[in-house]
Structure formats: structure tokens, C-alpha cells
Design goal:
Elements (H helix, E strand, L loop, with lengths): L22 E8 L2 H7 L8 H17 L3 E7 L2 E6 L10 H18 L1 H5 L10 E8 L2 H25 L12 H5 L1 E17 L5 E16 L7 H5 L9
Antiparallel strand pairs: 1-3, 1-4, 2-3, 2-5, 5-6
Helix pairs in contact: 2-3
The chain binds 2'-deoxyguanosine-5'-triphosphate (DGT) and magnesium ion (MG) (4 copies).
């Protein structure tokens, strides 16, 4: 088909493919959640319904966008890490970022009722996104450590602020202290299948297969232990 005379406008698009051999991190953050939390009566300083909904939405992102190897969230933010070698959407930053942000936002609204029950969603929430590239495992781990340490700092400031509510930093649940880390794990699943025997009779046979599921952790990701326990998240030797 002949090109239309309008086709040249395509050349105005900029190439935003992310540099190769880098982990691609997309971080989302709730827009004006100070107000959103207040209007929806989030408990202070941590609302388990809100945290559950954030994690549910992040699971939906991981399920829809292959190649995310780890996600970390706290407060109104979530970071998603694509593997270094991903070729998803030709590594185009705008495509990756907008898919993550829109899948997360629509999930946040879609699953609202599962977490907040009859309490209505008063207006459509939004999330901003940004893309950051990290070339080495050290850089990526330092990024994730930074997000978790940042959470600790703001929580400790909160502690001073919320001492009036009688919250003791050390006796709080790990979910509140450490945030949420999501990774893929293989799990064996056994189902029974109805099979036909050579003699024509049918019987139930147990069949075990390994399935990838998203596991959540509320633990320290700054130290070595988490990474030693899960050696397959990061690429080896880089
Ligand atoms: P932004 O991101 O610049 O549009 O503005 P904000 O207001 O979203 O600011 P940000 O992201 O720095 O801080 C997150 C806000 O969300 C902070 O004011 C506290 C609130 N928030 C997040 N999770 C909870 C929660 O579980 N309970 C309550 N009460 N507030 C929360
Ligand atoms: Mg912000
Ligand atoms: Mg925010
Ligand atoms: Mg935030
Ligand atoms: Mg299309």
C-alpha cells in the first residue's frame, strides 16, 4: 500500500528504548495520597486494607507483564524490576512505564471492594511512574535497599509523630516494618486427572506439576540473607 502523505509524522516519535544490559525499574507512587488516605479514612500510620490492595494490584502487574523478577512496595509506592535481558515492548520506556501504571491503577480500582468492603471509593486515584536503569546487581540491590531504608526512616519519624497512639516501633508486624517484596517461586501442585486404563476402565491418577506463583515476603532485603536464600532473582556475575 502506498504511504499517505501524512505518514512522515511518525518520524517525530523519539526512540526511548532502554539501554541494554540494564535492569529496568519502574517505580509508581500514588498521587496526593496524603489526601486520598485522609478521605478514605486510612488508619494511621499503616492501613492493612490499603497495603493489601497495593499488594494485590502489584500481583496483577506481575501476572500481566512477564519478565518482572521482583517488586518492592511500601506506603503508596511500588517498584517493579524487569530482568536485564528483557525485550518486552522492545524495551521502550514509555510502553513499559505506562503499562505498569495503568495495569496497577485499574487493578487498584477493580479490587477496591475486596479490601474496603462497603466503604466506597470516592474518586479515581492516580499513580505517577518513572523509569530508572541499573547496570549491575550492586546498583539494583542498593536501589531496593534505598527504598526499604527510606521506609524505615519515615516510619521512625512517624513513630515520634504517632507516639500518641501508643505504637511501639519494635512490636509492629513485619508487614509494617519491612514493606512487601514479591518474587516468583516454583510450587509443586498435585491435581487428580481422570485417565483411561489399557483395559478401557477409567481411574483417578494424581499428577504433580510445578507452577510459578508470586510469593510475598515482609523481610529485610538490605542484608545478604534474602539474596542468598533466593539466588535466582538476579542474573549471575554482573
Ligand atoms: P505525591 O506523591 O507527591 O503526589 O503526594 P503524596 O501525598 O502521595 O505524598 P507521598 O507519596 O510522599 O506520601 C504518601 C502519603 O500517603 C503520606 O502522606 C501518607 C499516606 N499513606 C500511605 N499509606 C498510608 C497508610 O497506610 N495509612 C495512612 N494513614 N496514610 C498512608
Ligand atoms: Mg511523591
Ligand atoms: Mg504519593
Ligand atoms: Mg509515596
Ligand atoms: Mg495498540
Amino acid at each position: 500500500m502506498a504511504k499517505s502523505k501524512f505518514e512522515y509524522v511518525r518520524n517525530f516519535e523519539t526512540d526511548d528504548a532502554c539501554l541494554r544490559n540494564c535492569y529496568i525499574v519502574v517505580r509508581l507512587d500514588g498521587r496526593n495520597f496524603h489526601k486520598f488516605a485522609e478521605q478514605h479514612k486510612f488508619t494511621k500510620p499503616n492501613d492493612n486494607r490499603a497495603l493489601g490492595l497495593m499488594t494485590r494490584s502489584a500481583r496483577s502487574v506481575m501476572g500481566e507483564l512477564e519478565d518482572i523478577v521482583i517488586a518492592y512496595g511500601q506506603s503508596d509506592e511500588f517498584s517493579f524490576v524487569f530482568k536485564r535481558t528483557t525485550t518486552l515492548f522492545k524495551r521502550r520506556a514509555s510502553k513499559l512505564m505506562t503499562h505498569v501504571a495503568s495495569q496497577f491503577s485499574s487493578s487498584y480500582v477493580f479490587y477496591w471492594k475486596e479490601f474496603f468492603g462497603e466503604q466506597p471509593l470516592l474518586y479515581p486515584p492516580g499513580f505517577d511512574g518513572r523509569v530508572v536503569l541499573y547496570p549491575t546487581n550492586r546498583n539494583l540491590r542498593d536501589y531496593l535497599s534505598w527504598r526499604q531504608a527510606d521506609w524505615n526512616t519515615s516510619r521512625r519519624q512517624n513513630e515520634i509523630l504517632f507516639s500518641q497512639f501508643d505504637i511501639n516501633y519494635n512490636s509492629e508486624p513485619a508487614l509494617h516494618k519491612k514493606g512487601t517484596t514479591l518474587i516468583w517461586e516454583k510450587q509443586d501442585e498435585t491435581v487428580t486427572k481422570r485417565m483411561k486404563r489399557p483395559d478401557g476402565e477409567e481411574e483417578d491418577v494424581p499428577v504433580t506439576r510445578s507452577r510459578r506463583t508470586v510469593q510475598d515476603y515482609h523481610c529485610d532485603i538490605i542484608g545478604e540473607k534474602f539474596w542468598e536464600d533466593h539466588p535466582d532473582i538476579l542474573e549471575h556475575g554482573c
